[in-house]
Amino acid sequence: MTRTATRAATRTSADRLARLLNLVPYLLARPGIELAEAAGDLGVTERQLREDLELLWVCGLPGYGPGDLIDMAFDGDRVTITYDAGIDRPLRLTQDEALALVVALRMLAETPGVDNRDAVERALAKIESAAGDLADAPVAVRMPDDSTRVEALRAAVQRGRALRITYYTAARDETTERTVDPLRMLNVGGRAYLEAWCRRAEAVRLFRADRIDAFTELDGAAVVPPQAQPQDVTEGVFRPSVDLPLITLRVGRGERWITEYYPCERVERGEGDQWLVWMRVTDLGWARRFVLGLGPSVTVVSPPELVEQVRARAAAALDAYATVVPAAAGRAEPVDTH
After folding, report:
1. What is the 3-state secondary structure (H, E, C) of 307-337?
2. Can you tell me the distance from the alpha carbon of 126 to that of 118, in angstroms, rounded to the nearest whole number?
3. How confident is the model over 268-294, as a mean pLDDT?
4. Structural domain boundaries of the chain?
5. pLDDT value at residue 292
6. How far apart are the first and last CA of the chain?
7. Considering the entire predicted model, what is its pTM?
8. Distance between CA atoms of 224 and 157, rounded to whole angstroms?
9. d(CA 221, CA 159)
10. What is the pLDDT of residues 307-337, one digit of tens each?
11. WCX domain: from which residue to which, for each copy (predicted)?
């Protein structure tokens, strides 16, 4: 299964779980409702609703005997919940669950680049109020990040000024000067980003805050053209497309983690413990540096030009090592073994 398919299946399962949790209270409040009407209210097909009801029939309390499961009665095309298995009762958090939620919200509030911080703080205040003395537990949350730079960027964005930034682009291993018109600050995958209209690229770009080496506020206000729209980053910053280079790697057990941290088009089991991994990359220069940093348990299968680039760089590194080590050995001082 591809990573995209896995994410889609996860979203579908999560959507269905949320629907099932809402379905029982909905039906309890409307005994004898027609299936067609319920499906319309819930935004699903009648067939999907029937499948959800069939699943609910095998859900219930631990023990899962006939008297523990959710039960319902059908009268033609009408349905009535006859036993809700306690799903109508409000959620009660244990002490550990409440404390975990408080810590998570505090961490989110401290994360640089998070939008809607006010909403996070309001939710935190409500949970802390409900948790009572438990919320006063001696737990401090601090994010290991360049918060000073992020907050300075955030303040500049709020002032609505254009910025001149010095930015390091890892994909091309180069530093450039750009003039940008900020749109917003955001956080993706634990990293803070400046989203802005880049006048050089004439497009919206995301700039990682920790790669902005310097920035200066310009006198002029930010001028964002009408076609500049915020990007959808719900699935991450990098969005693979068919026009990007496709590489194939053979990875050993120790390097399988890359399939969890990088978008992969396809993953197949190879010989022994090896996997074959297909992934899109921004360019082959980035791919070369990426592969060389992974170690000997990763082999490039394709494309041929990447195979040659990696081979050439690896050979050059070995040649340099062979030159440096003997020279250093020749300068080594004798060791007194007495």
Report:
1. HHHHHHHHHHHHHHHHHHHHHHHHCCCCCCC
2. 12
3. 86
4. 12-83, 95-136, 157-221, 246-325
5. 85
6. 64
7. 0.43
8. 12
9. 9
10. 998 888 888 888 877 765 555 555 545 444 4
11. 248-318
